[in-house]
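During the second year of the project, the team shifted from modelling isolated chains to modelling whole assemblies. The rationale, set out in the original proposal, was that interfaces cannot be judged from single-chain predictions alone. As a representative example for this report, we include one of the complexes processed in the last quarter. Its constituent sequences, exactly as entered into the pipeline, are reproduced here:
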Amino acid sequence: MFAAKERTTSRLDSTVKPVYNILCDSADLFSWFFKKVGKSKRVPAENGFFREIELAHVILRFVHQYSTPEAFADMSKSILAHTAGTPDYIITNAEGTVILCIEDTHTAPVGNAVLQRLDKLFPLWLNAAIKCPVKFIGPLEGVDKSQDKTRSWEQSWFYKCWAKSRPDIFRLLDNAESIMPEVYREILQAIEMDALGTPLVATSLTGAEIETLHATALRHIRSYEVSNGSATFRGKLYKPDNSPAHPVQSTLMTICELRRALKMSPIKIETTHGKRLQSSTSRRILRIMATNPILAEGA
Amino acid sequence: MLTETDVILNFMEDSAMEFAQTATWEFPAGCWSGPKNRNQGDIFDSPLFPAPIEAKGNFRNAKKDFLNLKKNGMVQHYIYSAPTRDEKLQQQLSFWKENGISAAIYLTEDEKWAILTIDGKCSLASIVQPEKIIEVFGE
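Output from the structure prediction step:
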């Protein structure tokens, strides 16, 4: 297997265009871009292909998780080691340095759709070792088909208390058709700044923002309470059929990350799945368990 | 054998640009995004070839998908990958022919498509660039 650096073109002189890798969860971005430019190059890789599209000054190399999983894992490990999910796009420069992460969605911003994605992003926002912007791009509102209702980010406590004040992180768009162009625009901007030697600054949260988020989460998340200085989480982490309840797990993980960032005591988790939590290999659960929660028989 | 993603992307790159631009393409992804209409196929809705096309990595998976009527009862066109034109490919073509299914098979050693057309109707050969086709069977 190649090392991450060997997969990239490291020469940045004027005769060789630098290669920027776009590590993708799905091939939607490549598909969208290919339809625009009509030209690409297949580069044989381990058991699959990378796809390259040449621009005026750089080459964009698309590395798809479901095409070349080994290469994808190797090239993304510096970011994925720090989070519980895989952002949809991870962009690296010619040296293999991550310069941008993006999570995008076309899904209406109902509670679960937002919560399920936070576990990918929150640990990166709270980690000072992450030196690149980490962004979310999605529709400001959309139709929740299960209830045939229009739902908007503006209805959520998460938006009201924090997201609306960070348009640098949350690119919330008026229509879903703008999402892919916006993803592409963000990627090009990051590449341009990197090529100029002035990479975009990392996404970071101030202590006050983290405190506000925690206080608001405490007010709005019914399964989380603090009494006499002791914090308890009672959400059902597994569904009745024993499959993981991802939004609940993601919520707990976010609370644990916030508490750790604020140097608070470990949370008590009331659950009937204590043993399962202790033996789980899920990245989400591993991050929760890394905060040394107290497991108690309960919900 | 290629992955389903590579089969779809190779088909997109090797098809006529007008087809690539007008069809809807769906790719495997990490996040499940709601129930998928399993009769829809992975490629669909192009006026040039409106019938749904289902993609798989190899013949085994394509056959399994085809035989599962709960999943793909309506799909009549499959694309997947195989090494080259050999006896095994002939057996695969016979299977599809017996079942009235058309197929485009990306041959990894030849880097071109072998295409099986059924009764000359709705041929996948009509949407793949001619120079990317190694042979059309069934015509």
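The two ends of chain A are 45 Å apart (CA to CA). Confidence is low (pLDDT under 50) at residues 1-13 of chain A.
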